[in-house]
Amino acid sequence: MASKTGRTWLDCKNPQMADSFLKRAVTSLETLYSQLTSRADGAGDATLSKGDVEKDLLRILSCQAESAISQGKNHEAVVCMQRCKDMLLRLPKDTAYISITCYNFGIDAYNLGKLEDSAFWLSQSYEIGKMNLKYAPEPEMKAKVLRFLATVYLESDCQRSHEKALSAVNLANKECASVAGLYLKIRVLLRSGASDDHIRAGLNEMLESAVPLEVCLNTVRLLMSEDRESLAFEHLRCVCCHFDSSPDLGTALVLHIELLLQRGKDLLCKQKIEDIITGHYTGKQLTSQALTSLHVMLWDKASKHFENKNYAEALQWYNFSLSFFKGGQIDPNLAKLQRNRASCFLQLKQLEKAKDAIMEVERCDPDSIFTHFSVYKIAVQENNVKKAAEAVNAMGRLAKIPVSSKDTILVSEDASSNLLSLAAQIALENEQEDIAMKALESLCENSKDDAQVLTALRCLVRLVLTTIEKSGDETRNANLDTLLLYLKTALQKISHRSNMTVKQCTEEANWFRKIAWNSALQCESSPDRMRNFFVLSYQLSQLCPPDRTLLMGQKTCLLMAAAATLELCRKSPHSDQTEELTQALEHIQICWEVWRSLKTSGNFSMDPTNTLLLLYEFEARAKLNDPKLETVLESVLELEHVDTKVLETIAALAMEPPSHFPLLCKKALRAALSLHKKQPQTDLARCSKCVHSLIKLSLPSGVTEVEAHVLEEVWDYYEEALSIIAAAPDDFPEMETLWLLTRAWNTGILLYSLTQYPEAEKWCGLAMSFIRHLGSLKESYEVQLSELYSEILDRLDKAKNSHIMEE
């Protein structure tokens, strides 16, 4: 029970627990063995029982050795296994068991990097196996032990160990010759620095032992890695002769090509390839796998020459590859090959040969983006704009379809985007800007790489700006619209921030922001485009870290966007402007927020932004008939420094169709007039205009509007006008005086018709008071009006008397 429990603990990877039970089991068995020994002299049943006890003891001792090994107690394991080894003289049938146990200990020690311990246990395994040939492990097992021992010696990396390794592997091959043993022998010979003759003998032994072709080729690679080049090529030739009739001979031939290429022996390599081509069509056809490997090597060699601009040499290597394709064969790889050949022909200025190659490409793979790219390159070379445009359109269409790499060689995941980028570059190099723009637009539409798209957009922006500089007025607007579209795409891509750092995003946003700003300044005659560019500039600036300079830019963008929107509304007064005006208000509100942030960073006492924002807001709300309009006017009046021009502008806006706010207009005019009068030097002309507008707004235009408070208000304005005239009678415009006279007289007549005689007399008298301020017109108007005034006074007296008599 103790031994079984100990074994179980070992299996559970708990050697400490196992030790106590195994030790108890050994003690019990040794006690029992002593008792059996002292029992009846050599009785048969006692001898049999002693044998059983020894057998159990051997098993438990091997378990103790296993436990000691797992705990790193190698010396204890050696002691236990020595006892087992001594017991094998009485228990020969357990020879194989103990030998294999030692072999396992050797493996464990090797895995732990304890090469010396591993060599000891593997040697013990072999020595124990020789103790009793009848019950020893099979020869295959002995050979396996010896090969492992040779490997351990080989890794010890000293000359003495190499000699032991060679001895071990020779013994292994004597015990049981195998492929692994023969290959290991070559490794040992190479590591020990054996002469070519000794190694050649080992190689011949391999060939005589019918070693598989793959092992022979691995041996060639081993020789090359150990700098035995001449011996490697010699052995490879022997291998090719030995396997001359094998269907896998092509694998060896391809390896020969590979090694020649690695060593830079191009001339020999070309001769060998020509021999392989001849053999391929005369009964020694390469397998599909070997042929694929050869194509890859040939293409790789050709591409390196192409990169180094050795186009003729590159073409020769591609032609070698072409020799393995049959005439009329349809294969995507053949299409690729012909495209590569066409590229070489183009570089060599052999256009006709390039066209022939592309004809083959179109036959083999007409729906490939690479095919259309090749067609495109030739079209550009021929300056065939129409065909180049068709090819770019086809590339853009095919770019939407994922590129499959099944059964093809060297396909890039980003092939579509890279080809469109390259197409644009080729067009620019050949001064075909329209085609370049088509290619770049397709790239922007199909590429998933935002950084690549932004680079393409930069190119497009530069190209369209160049076009705008050269174009006339008839195409200018169309080009500006195209530019706007590019900038919107840039805004969308930068906003994603998918595969770009914050620094990259900031740089891109800044670049496109400045373009949008400068483009807006070129749109003075087109308010809608100006607004769109300024809005885009503001949106792009939001993707940059905020600072004072940036906030100033944002404020200006929003102000200009609002101004452009209002200008657009002024140019089309009869259209529905609700959407535009609402948009203008949105720009103004955001600008207020930016402006408030900006004012915290410094002194802006001289900045007109407050005034401009209130002006724009007043105009937008006036045209929207917004009830908050009066609040805006109050805000203007509360400004620390209000310019009279601002108030006059607000007055005009209040009455500009479709707006009609006479009360607010008069309020602004009164405030403007008041400010004018406070000036050190009064501007009489502007004061006169204010009074003129106030009178015009206030005078009754019909019977229903004649009210006492209205007349009283207008009378005050007339008195204001008289005071202005009195202050500078020579500077007051005569026609303005005449207008005041006429309107006062007409008001008097209107009141007369309404039988308001006292008021009529008053207003007609007011009109007469202006006559003395007339210049050249004074005499004629004085005569006419004096007669009329006398008439009116007579009629007024009669009317008054008649009215008294009736009472």
Care to describe what's here?
- This protein has 807 residues and is mainly alpha-helical.
- It has a domain at 681-806.
- The protein is 77% helix and 0% strand.
- The protein has helices at 2-11, 15-38, 44-70, 74-87, 95-111, 115-131, 139-156, 159-175, 179-191, 196-208, 213-225, 229-242, 249-262, 266-280, 288-307, 311-322, 332-347, 351-364, 369-381, 385-399, 415-429, 433-446, 450-470, 473-496, 502-521, 527-541, 548-571, 578-599, 609-623, 629-637, 644-655, 662-678, 684-698, 708-727, 734-753, 757-769, 778-806.
- α7 (139-156) runs antiparallel to α8 and α7 (139-156) packs parallel to α9.
- Mean pLDDT is 85; it is low at 405-413.
In summary, what is this structure?
With 807 residues, the chain is mainly α.
Write the layout of secondary structure elements.
Blueprint: H1 2-11, H2 15-38, H3 44-70, H4 74-87, H5 95-111, H6 115-131, H7 139-156, H8 159-175, H9 179-191, H10 196-208, H11 213-225, H12 229-242, H13 249-262, H14 266-280, H15 288-307, H16 311-322, H17 332-347, H18 351-364, H19 369-381, H20 385-399, H21 415-429, H22 433-446, H23 450-470, H24 473-496, H25 502-521, H26 527-541, H27 548-571, H28 578-599, H29 609-623, H30 629-637, H31 644-655, H32 662-678, H33 684-698, H34 708-727, H35 734-753, H36 757-769, H37 778-806
GO biological process, one term: meiotic cell cycle
Pfam family, one: SPO22
Protein name: Protein ZIP4 homolog
